[in-house]
Amino acid sequence: MKKKILILTVFALSFSMFSCTENDLEPTLAQNKDVETSIKTVEDLRGVLNGMYNRITTTPYYGRDFIVYGEVRSDNCYANGNSGRIITPASMDMGNTDAYATDTWTQIYRVIASANIVISKKNAGLDGDEGQINHYVGQALAIRALAHFDLLKLYGQQHVTNGNNVGIPYIKEYKGSNIAPARNTVAEVKQFIYDDLDEALSLMNASYNEASKQYVTTYAVNAIKARVATYFGDWNISKTACEAIISSEQFQIVPQAGFVDMWKQDAPVNSIFELAYSSVDNNNINGLQYIYRGASYGDVRVLDDLLSIFEPTDVRASASMIGYDPQAPAYLTNLGKYPASDYSDDIILFRYEEVILNYAEALFELGQSGLNGLTALDYLNLIPAQRGASAYATITKDNILNERRRELCFEGFRFDDLARTGKDIPLVDPLNQRHNGPTYGSYNYAFPIPKSELNANPNMQQNYGYN
Question: Quick one: how far is CA 167 from the chain centroid?
């Protein structure tokens, strides 16, 4: 049985891991210590930071489920039920006791709990380099912002008619006095996200950025800000954040010849922030590799409609990227992204190509030219130019969304791109798709608040349509 930990329980627990072994990253209750006295040095703080990152890598969050939610609730992929996984998210008709809704809610708030421990040590007089301490606190602020943003996209009512723009609880304190938080509005959550990202940038210094790309850097903070601003249509914010990354000249669009192999590498030239996995530390069969392919699981398969939007010369739809699974030949499959048979692929959460697409969209919406006098169309065409695809003749919202779908498929973006632009979920294959194509504004656009949370928290409000 999967663990179900409520917000108030998550924030009532402390942990004291100060090394990066697997056992230290997930301590038992008996091993927990008082967080107020256990963290005394910058090395201690890094141990808690490592625990925060470890919690992001788990199956209910970016280790699998959060990413595939964005694919099966769209026109990219479907859940075939081969092993009984991902069926309820794909149907977009979940009960409030649904394990996926419960486990992802729980795990993301556990990440936030870890981040808040680190943040609480700002100006705490820890032993060590003050600049390094501030850099760690900045990373935690950025992850706290990202985690609340991800919760909002799943559980917020911003795309639900009669949802009254109810967001999610934004938790800013570890072991705070409010153990039964009410839901903030969507507008409040958005502002808190921006506040955390701005504070992160004010505390962090690029000289402390780590080369591994497995820790949040100043560039990653701007990448998060650009993603948030694109989602909300805050185009000036997106433009500024993208320009901070582009003008750094620290990243490149992977060329056509290297695109397939890039997915087998750690820290490629286009990676801004990625989650670390290895052949001995991974989610094994409960990761992305097994859910996308193979005969045993292989529950998330590709819809023909996605393949139809690629040109024959496009490397993104080559036989190494999208094709029929050798172990299950009946199924069109994502073969190229997250390919390692030993589950050791790092998962890239932010890559340079997304930044370029965010920038092109911001320039288009603002009616402005960008860096070096290039237009929105120029930036949009930087991607197909390196993929063996034809350039776009005009810049339109549909062309931008089409290129995002081609470039970012299987990485969890498609549902949010449809939702943020007010679109219905396309029903392109009624035989395989489970969600029947909900129209924009349907209650199905949000997950239910878990019943266990409602039972434990008298201030928690259920989402419209699930009462």
Answer: 17
Q: Is pLDDT at 299 greater than 60 in this prediction?
A: yes
Q: Identify the sign of the CA torsion 260, 261, 264, 270.
A: negative
Whether residue 129 is predicted with pLDDT greater than 80 in this model: the reply is yes
* Domain boundary assignment for the chain: 7-456
Q: Is pLDDT above 90 for 28? A: no
- Return left, alpha or beta for 333; rule: phi > 0 is left, psi -120 to 50 is alpha, else beta: beta
* Helices 218-232 + 130-155 axis angle, to 10: 20
* CATH topology (fold) of 7-456: 1.25.40
- Write the CB contacts of 457 (distance below 8 Å, at least 6 apart in sequence): 6, 7, 8, 180, 181
Are the C-beta atoms of residues 337 and 76 closer than 8 Å to each other?
no
For residue 3, report the phi and psi dihedrals to the nearest 5 degrees: -75, 140
φ/ψ (deg, to 5) at 330: -75, -15
Separation between Cα atoms, residue 90 and residue 109, nearest integer Å: 23
User: Measured between alpha carbons, how far is 348 from 205 in angstroms, rounded to an integer?
Assistant: 22
Orientation angle between helical segments 218-232 and 352-366, nearest 10 degrees: 40
Question: What distances in angstroms separate CA 43 from CA 38, 117, 146, 412, one per listed residue?
Answer: 11, 14, 24, 34
Extract the tokens encoding 2: 């999967």
Residues 361-370: contacts with CB within 8 Å, 24+ apart?
361/230, 361/235, 361/238, 361/397, 361/400, 362/229, 362/230, 362/235, 362/236, 362/238, 362/239, 362/242, 363/239, 364/395, 364/397, 364/400, 365/233, 365/235, 366/235, 366/236, 366/239, 368/239, 370/239, 370/243
Q: Estimate the crossing angle of helix 218-232 against helix 186-203, to 10 degrees.
A: 160
pLDDT at 26: 37
Rg for the chain, CA atoms, rounded:
21
For range 150-175, the mean pLDDT: 97
